[in-house]
Amino acid sequence: MRVVDTNVVVRILVDDDRAQAERAAALLTEGEVLVLKTVLLESEWVLRSVYRLRRRRIASALRGLLGLPGVTVEDPSAVARALDWLDQGMDLADALHLASSPPGATFVTFDRALVRQAALLDGTPAAQDLGR
Length: 132
Known about the structure:
The chain has 132 residues and is of the alpha/beta class. It contains seven helices and five strands, in the order βααβααβααβαβ.
């Protein structure tokens, strides 16, 4: 198994360097590939900040990549939930933090907007504003 870096994910998704994109795509046919949550976080940031893609487009592109044969992702259920919440407008980092929280846990933050947003989403753990 190989674990891919952010630049490999981005090359596959944006195809902005043909030679690198071809090598990255070929890697997917050569055996199992693992995508870590940290790589997803960084990839989302690059796609949003550098390539100016919208959140729904990013979520769709990441789902497409993660759905390919031979591609696995660290903590797949948390990632799936986080990508759903990204589709609903949540920041991916916040979504992954919430989705990675263990069952029954309370996610504690000073980010009041995150607490309000989490309360509106299905399946999120309890979130508590520590600033109160």
